[in-house]
Specification:
This protein has 400 residues and is of the alpha/beta class. The chain folds into 2 domains: 151 residues, Aspartate Aminotransferase, domain 1 (Alpha-Beta Complex), CATH 3.90.1150.10; 229 residues, 3-Layer(aba) Sandwich (Aspartate Aminotransferase, domain 2). The protein has 14 helices and 17 strands. The strands form 4 sheets. The chain has a 7-stranded mixed beta sheet with strand order 4-12-11-10-7-5-6, sandwiched between helices. A hairpin with a 4-residue loop joins strand 16 and strand 17. Helix 3 runs antiparallel to helix 11 and helix 12 packs parallel to helix 14. The radius of gyration is 21 Å and the shape is globular. It binds pyridoxal-5'-phosphate. The site of pyridoxal-5'-phosphate (PLP) has 15 residues, from helix 5.
């Protein structure tokens, strides 16, 4: 068998990514090892996905047990893991009904299609505008990049779908001015994730809900990144005291196994009547068995308590490093989704800090060119957080 390395990527993979120089081969908890057996602390969790760390015994058991039973049936027949997972999601959230798919983009695609059908069938074809926010990220299909608020992801892919408006985030006056009876939905991330780890203000979150009610527009929460415990509650909407009409989730839901879900109410579920939408793999037994085990573990009070404690530890450690080395400012965010904006002298160079950290054995993320993003596993231990901070300090010292 021929060996593969990072150089193989450039030979045989489409260049839409530029992965790091190392190739990890195994993981355990919040540690990773590369081909040279070098060890890394994981503050990225596969971009807020592996919420229970790597090789969690309960997830391995759920996957291997299901693997020996049944892999796939299609949507012509339902299956026990999908039914159990749907029951669990319904019992843990505002939702009455669940649609399964395979990714965050697909969950949002389903939500936006539901919103359009809701406008069309309940009010008429004029009610078709979807309002979203600058710097929002909702996935990479053509509809979801178009609803997302980052021009770099739509450039060159025109013509784009119409009926979409973008407004400044956390600006209630702008939304109030834009709302009218052609709006079928407003979609928001409770914390702008890719757009810089910026939380919604309470006033904004509540104001958006009120404006949607006033104009009979649906409120869609994209909790693909904030969901499944990452924000410190099972879903971030709980912390705002705002209930969306539709919630989308993916990333952490499968703990590293691909799955997405759209959650909604009885009344809205009726809009997606038989035959109106679908997915070959949506509700796949392997994915649903793993996600059910993930949710059982994540919803435990101990897990959510650890998120709060490690979040405080990480934020305090970052504050010390920020003051000592001057590379970045105070971290913001919710739970274990934290973002530290780089100092003016480092504008546009967050990636340089990430690369220096990787050289010291720490995997971090950026959220755009100016923000360092921290999204470790929800069950990361205090010792791993401390060791990660020590490695980040070495990287900061070297950059200075
Ligand atoms: C990652 C992300 C998506 C897209 O999810 P995919 O699984 O990559 O399709 C959508 N919305 C938000 C908020 C995300 O962070």
């Amino acid at each position: 068998m021929s060996s593969v390395t990072r150089a193989t990527f450039d030979e045989v993979m489409v260049p839409n990514y530029n992965p790091a120089g190392i190739v990890p081969v195994r993981g355990q908890g919040s540690r990773l090892w590369d081909q040279q057996n070098r060890e890394y602390i994981d503050f990225a969790a596969g971009i807020a996905v592996t919420g229970l760390g790597h090789a969690h015994p309960k997830l391995i058991a759920a996957l291997t047990e299901q693997a020996g039973k049944l892999w796939h049936l299609s949507n012509v027949m339902t299956n026990e893991p999908a039914l159990r997972l749907a029951q669990r999601l319904v019992s843990l959230t505002f939702a009455d009904k669940v649609f399964f798919c395979n990714s965050g983009a697909e969950a949002n695609e389903a939500a936006f299609k539901l919103a359009r059908r809701y406008g069309n069938t309940r009010f008429g074809p004029h009610k078709n505008t979807i309002i979203s926010f600058h710097n929002a990220f909702h996935g990479r299909t053509l509809f979801t990049v178009s609803v997302g608020g980052q021009a770099k992801y739509t450039q060159g892919f025109e013509p784009l779908p119409g009926g979409i408006r973008h407004l400044p985030y956390n600006d209630l006056a702008a939304l109030k001015a834009a709302m009218n009876d052609t709006v079928c939905a407003v979609v928001m991330e409770p914390v702008l994730g890719e757009g810089g780890v910026l939380p919604a203000t309470l006033e904004f979150a509540r104001g958006v809900r009120a404006l949607c009610d006033e104009h009979q527009a649906l409120l869609i929460y994209d909790e693909v990144q904030t969901g499944n415990g990452r924000s410190g509650s099972l879903y971030a909407y709980e912390q705002f005291g705002v209930t969306p009409d539709i919630l989308t989730t993916a990333k952490g839901l499968g703990g590293g196994f691909p799955i997405g879900a759209m959650l909604t109410t009885h009344a809205l579920a009726e809009v997606l009547a038989f035959g109106t939408h679908g997915s070959t793999y949506g509700g796949n037994p392997l994915a649903c068995a793993v996600a059910d085990a993930v949710l059982e573990e994540v919803a435990r009070p101990e897990t959510l308590r650890n998120v709060a404690e490690r979040s405080a530890q990480l934020a305090a450690g970052l504050r010390v490093l920020g003051e000592r080395y001057g590379l970045f400012g105070e971290a913001r965010g919710l739970g274990l989704l934290l973002g530290a904006p780089v100092a003016d002298a480092w504008k546009g160079r967050a990636k340089d800090i990430v690369n220096a950290a990787l050289a010291e054995g720490l995997w971090l993320l950026v959220a755009g060119p100016d923000v360092l993003r921290f999204a470790p596993a929800l069950n990361i231990g205090a010792a791993d957080v401390a060791e990660g901070l020590a490695r980040l300090e070495r990287a900061c010292a070297r950059l200075r």
